[in-house]
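Researcher: Re-running this chain for the archive, since the previous output was lost when a drive failed. Same request as before.
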Amino acid sequence: MKGLLIRWVINALALILISQMIKGIQVDHFAAAFVAAAVLGVINAVLRPILILLTLPITILTLGLFALLINGFMLYIAGTIAKGFHVSGLWPAVFGALFLSLISWIANAFINDRGRIEYIELRPRP
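Model: Regenerated structure tokens:
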């Protein structure tokens, strides 16, 4: 549970960072980023698997690149639902989703479910 909260905060901070980097994505205030991160998490948990399954042939034909459009669409939907979080079009949403996916992937790689940072320690052979 603690790990989930930490990842939620990281995603909210990532949305704020993305709004500074990409023209077309705007976060009005800090609380809006937390709401948008929660809305995006629910949308990705409920709607994204259905869309991935329905568009599987197109995703296979494009070698997975169509999944980027689906991720952008999820970010665009979150922008229409969450107040204070605005996404102006599909392309800013796609680029924002790409950056958000990268940041989330890094956060998930290093933070476990208990909220602890995991790392691999390499020791030289004796």
